[in-house]
Amino acid sequence: MKNFILAVLIAILITYSCGIVANEWFNFSIHFDEHIFGPMESVVGVTAVGAVMAIVGVIVAISVFGALALALFVAFVAMLLAGVTMFWPMLLVIAFIFWLVKDKRQTQY
What we know:
Elements: H1 2-26, E1 31-32, E2 35-36, H2 39-101
Antiparallel strand pairs: 1-2
């Protein structure tokens, strides 16, 4: 927990310092309905928009990966079932032969 709090504080410090640098060097500001936000409000706004975009990107990537994984799993199960249904008589004969030739255990008293 201590490392998590430290990481959050470092991220806030880096975000704040980058925001101040962007405001000083590039006169970076956000205008919303004839209102100009201050440097910290602009940085928080851009950071929030970036975080939302990153979350949406992760959701899309995971959903695409999940759909591909599900499709591959369904295709594997379908091929397995097709193979079993095609060769079940041969598998039954092999199982019967295996049952006939396996060693019988003798009970020891």
